[in-house]
Design brief:
1008 residues; 4% strand; five-stranded parallel sheet; 48 helices; 8 strands; mainly alpha
Length: 1008
């Protein structure tokens, strides 16, 4: 009785059943129109039938329906006659009281057989007639009850229903008509075996068109994540926890709850274990033995089970038949050989936990010996992993270590990094348990990026797999799987073991790895670790490790805008890699070099080379270099304004890296795609991609990008209130690794724009000045131009605002101009950015120059960035209308198509701030926004403010207090306070600063 183990659901989030709930809600709506509804909900134990029913009944009650629930009782094969109907009718009687009694008047002696509350039962002749009369009267009563109201009759656990209940239910389904009745039935599908009495009843219902049947599937991993988040009260549960709970629960909500609430996440609770074992303990002894033997495997081939069991074929088949019939084991139809698996993974766990001490060890040894003697008993691709597991749990280290290392090689070829890491952890655990002579001839593990070939011995016969190599492979697998902390643990252990004086190259590789992991985990920027690696290889000859370190130093310096001659470092890295014959490292160094040269402005040639490197990496099978090429190519294309091409490159990279198990890197590529889609105006698609891939983001850079992209879209759509917290979250992801301009400058641009719209001008200027102090930033010109353009817009917008003293604002404008004078202004994206900055700067300086906006429009036109073009059109129209010729018909005629274009784009994109700004400008100027449209209403009038509220808002925008407003308008301070509260409600703001910001942003009073 899975659904009845707990009396309440502890999951506040109803995950994964929204489509089913919509179906039930639609049925309720049809019933309300007088069309009776019958629905049948099936699903295995614990899948959420009762929770779905609870949610639906709550919604039905909220819609005014009367609900009644009756459950079948588990009292043997036949159950208790009419039990669910009796319970449901009793509930209806309690709710409706005298009305039900009145509708049953004259029929009490018969109906009392189901509802004893109606009175004594009279003696009637036994036979079909009396039974038919009972059925007829019961259905008639339900129809009358549902004649003027919607009634929901829910009957649970039909798998325990007695024959009488099934027959009455069948009569009800066929007979009910012309009423507002909903009949909802649930049953446990995994209990309905081939000979179960409910089976023909279900087949009968399937033939009726009036019956809708819903089968509840198990939850997906995303849905389990939502359920876990609700149970634990967090926005996003840990990725590892979600993966573990999903794997163990297999998507069954009840098991998710039990595992989430378990004091020890690695163990089953006693109540759940006992519940699971009930079904096993009901099996014959021979079948229980087969089940215990099978429990050693998630899936066991029939041939292997036969050898290990030692049973005669007939005896084995008899045991398997009983276990399958009881839904403990099920035939595995997903493999080409005859095999079995447990109905549920937790059932297998419970059986394993129930084995006696030593029984599991002995069982594992029997499986290992059988498989070694006859390898063909399992599929070739499973053999290494099975042997590794069998010998490990057999507690025989000498056999387990080589078996585990063979399995490591197998998992590595499949890019199964999490499994590879687990196996390597086992190998490290077993290492000291195997004597040195037993470690001879262990299987080689292959190369890793620039990891140096083994230097553990001077003669070929001494070159054996070493503990250091295992630590390197474990760290590497952990990094690829996004498990930064375990990977760091292995690196630190290796650095304690390796002798830097005797083996500087290997030590340098571990320092390089530590640098990467430190940055990925947000523990720091990795500079000190990288410096140590560079020091160790400084005087060493050419090698893959040396080249790799130089390339990483060059990229680090670029990302942190240190001003170092990074090109020389990258060129030297390429040269060393060629000398060492390290092809993959050379590709990586070339990617770094292309990225550096592209950042310096020589974009087209180096982007073409990135395409070439991407093809070479694909041909060589250098998939990590291929992933870098995808990501850097997408980024480089966006930075030269080729956004559509960037999307194509990014999508290709996402698919490739996800297919190879590089989930965090794939998510990073996805967030580059989100940036380009945002530029192209495909905002809904951008948000869809962001939400789809954010669950794979585990690195500090990727997590920060998730929050940043959401903040950028929120700003464009007018969701200003959530932006500061999103930026704070992005900075938390970065942790102590917060010095990269590619994050800090976009953070600043978004944050100060949001603060400005929230009326926090002083804070916005603080952010701008703090980041201007960081300039210059060599190699980061694109981000700097974006910061300066946003800063110029900010200083123009806050002119005259109470929170922005003019002296300070003018000083910031001068600093912006000085910073721009030192930047290169020629390039596919730098030219448009510089012209946009120049136009914004004219506003900040208080001058009107339509020509500057026309130049910005001409520069941006080839890029196809609709929101930026619409913003420019709006500002150009504004410059025409407020300039010296603004009152002329020619100026209005020139501004009209610009405003119409900007408005149409803003509406299409859902850019609420831009749309409102265009509408208010058009309203003030009385310019129509299209050939068939009227001029918009005056913006002040469109807000719905009274004349007095307009006077008050004018003074709020000027920074007056309630007392000052009262004095100027000759009203009481309390009256002024009431007007302020009213206008804030109409503007949809929560404080005076935001009200002033709205007035200033919409330029409501600038003509006064």
């Amino acid at each position: 009785m899975l659904e009845s183990v707990q009396s309440r659901s502890i999951s506040p989030v109803f995950a994964g059943r929204h489509d089913e709930l919509k179906t039930l809600d639609a049925a309720l709506a049809r019933a309300a129109l007088g069309e009776p509804q019958v629905l049948l909900v099936g699903g295995e134990a614990g899948v959420g039938k009762s929770r779905l029913l609870d949610e639906f009944l709550e919604a039905a009650q909220g819609a005014g329906a009367v609900t009644a629930v009756g459950g079948c009782l588990e009292l043997g094969a036949d159950g208790l006659p009419f039990a669910p109907f009796a319970t449901a009718l009793r509930m209806l009687h309690r709710k409706l009281g005298a009305e039900l009694a009145e509708l049953a008047a004259g029929q009490e002696p018969t109906l009392a057989r189901l509802l004893p509350d109606l009175g004594p039962v009279t003696e009637e002749p036994h036979g079909q007639d009396s039974r038919a009369r009972l059925f007829e009267l019961t259905v008639g009563l339900l129809e009358r009850l549902a004649a003027g109201r919607t009634v929901v009759l829910a009957l649970e656990d039909l798998h325990w229903a007695d024959r009488s209940t099934r027959e009455l239910l069948g009569y009800l389904v066929r007979s009910v008509q012309g009423s507002r009745l909903v009949v909802l039935m649930t049953y446990r599908s995994d209990d309905v075996h081939r000979r179960h009495p409910l089976r023909p009843f279900l087949a009968e219902l399937d033939r009726l068109r009036s019956v809708q049947r819903l089968e509840l599937a198990r939850l997906s991993e995303d849905e389990v994540r939502s359920q876990l988040a609700g149970i634990r009260g967090v926005a996003e549960p840990e990725r590892e926890l979600t993966a573990e709970v999903y794997a163990r629960s297999e998507g069954i909500p009840f098991f998710v709850e039990e595992l989430a609430l378990s004091d020890d996440a690695g163990r089953l609770s006693d109540s759940l274990r006992d519940l699971l074992l009930v079904r096993v303990e009901a099996l014959p002894e021979g079948a229980q033995r087969v089940v215990r033997l099978a429990a050693r495997n998630a899936r066991v081939p029939h041939a292997l089970l036969a050898v290990v069991s030692g049973l005669a074929e007939d005896e084995l088949i008899e045991g398997l038949r009983a276990a399958v019939g009881a839904n403990v084991l099920v035939p595995d139809e997903e493999v080409s050989v005859d095999a079995y698996r447990f109905r549920h993974a937790l059932l297998r766990e419970a059986v394993l936990d129930d084995l006696l001490p030593g029984e599991r060890t002995r069982l594992s040894r029997r499986y290992a010996e059988a498989l070694e003697a006859a390898p063909g008993l399992v599929a070739a691709e499973e053999r290494a992993t099975r042997l590794a597991s069998y010998w490990y749990y057999a507690r025989e280290p000498a056999k387990a270590l080589p078996a585990v290392l063979h399995a490591v090689v197998e998992t590595r070829t499949r890019h199964a990094y999490a499994e590879q890491l687990k196996l390597l952890e086992r190998a490290l655990e077993l290492w000291d348990e195997v004597p040195p002579e037993g470690r001879r001839g262990l299987p080689a593990q292959g190369g890793m990026e620039s990891y140096p070939a083994c230097g553990c011995g001077g003669r070929p016969e001494e070159i054996e797999l070493h503990l250091i190599d295992l630590l390197a492979h474990a760290a590497f697998a952990g990094r690829l799987d996004g498990q930064w902390e375990p990977a760091l643990k292995f690196v630190k252990k290796a650095l304690k073991v390796v002798d830097e004086a005797q083996d500087p190259l290997r030590a340098a590789w571990f320092w390089l790895e530590r640098s990467k992991l430190t940055a990925l985990a947000g523990r720091g920027d990795g500079r000190a670790e990288l410096t140590r690696a560079h020091e160790l290889v400084h005087d060493l000859p050419a090698s893959a490790t040396h080249a790799d370190i130089l390339a990483h130093v060059a990229m680090w310096e670029l990302l942190h805008a240190s001003g170092m001659d990074t090109l020389a470092l990258a060129e030297r890295a390429v040269e060393l890699a060629r000398q060492a014959g390290a092809g993959d490292v050379e590709l990586g160094a070339r990617i770094t070099l292309c990225t550096l040269r592209s950042a310096k402005g020589d974009s087209d040639a180096w982007i073409a080379e990135l395409y070439e490197i991407r093809e070479l990496a694909a041909q060589r099978g250098a998939f990590r270099e291929l992933g870098r090429a995808h990501i850097n190519l997408c980024d480089a294309l966006e930075k030269v304004g080729r956004s559509a091409e960037a999307v194509e490159a990014g999508l290709a990279g996402m698919k490739d890296m996800h297919g190879r198990g590089l989930y965090d890197a794939a998510a990073f590529a996805a967030l580059n795609v989100v940036e380009s889609l945002t530029s192209l105006g495909e905002w809904d698609r951008a948000e869809q991609v962001r939400q789809e891939w954010m669950r794979f983001a585990v690195g500090s850079r990727t997590g920060a990008s998730v929050a940043l992209r959401r903040a950028q879209l929120a700003l464009l759509r007018g969701e200003f209130g959530i932006v500061p917290e999103l930026i704070a979250a992005a900075r938390r992801y970065r942790g102590r690794n917060d010095g990269e301009p590619q994050y800090e400058l976009p953070f600043a641009a978004v944050e100060m724009s949001a603060l400005r719209t929230l009326g926090r001008e002083q804070e916005a200027l603080d952010v701008l000045e703090r980041h201007l102090a960081l300039l210059p930033m060599s190699g980061q010109e694109t981000y700097v131009w974006q910061l300066l353009s946003t800063g110029a817009r900010l200083t123009a917008d806050v002119a005259g605002a109470p929170g922005a003293p003019e002296e300070r604002r003018a000083a910031v404008v001068a600093r912006l101009a000085d910073a721009a004078a030192d930047l290169p202004a020629t390039g596919p994206l730098w030219t448009p950015l510089s012209r946009l900055f120049a136009a914004e700067l004219t506003r900040a300086r208080g001058t009107v120059d339509p020509g500057a906006w026309a130049a910005a429009a001409a520069a941006y036109e080839p890029l196809g960035h609709p929101h930026t073009l619409a913003h420019i059109a709006y500002r150009r129209a504004e410059a025409l209308l407020v300039g010296a010729a603004g009152a002329s018909g020619a100026a209005r005629a020139a501004a009209a198509p610009l405003l119409a274009e900007a408005h149409a784009t803003a509406v299409r994109l859902g850019a609420a701030p831009l749309r409102e700004a265009v509408e208010h400008l058009a309203g003030r100027a009385r310019v129509p926004l299209g050939p068939a449209s009227r001029p918009p209403a005056d913006p002040v009038e469109s807000l719905g403010l009274t004349a007095r509220e307009t006077d008050v808002l004018r003074r709020v925008a000027a920074g007056r207090s309630n007392r000052e407003i009262a004095e100027e308008l000759f009203i009481a301070p309390k009256t002024a306070s009431v007007h302020v509260s009213n206008l804030m409600a109409k503007l949809g703001v929560s404080n005076r600063g935001e009200a002033a910001a709205v007035a200033h942003r919409l330029r409501l009073f600038e003509d006064e």
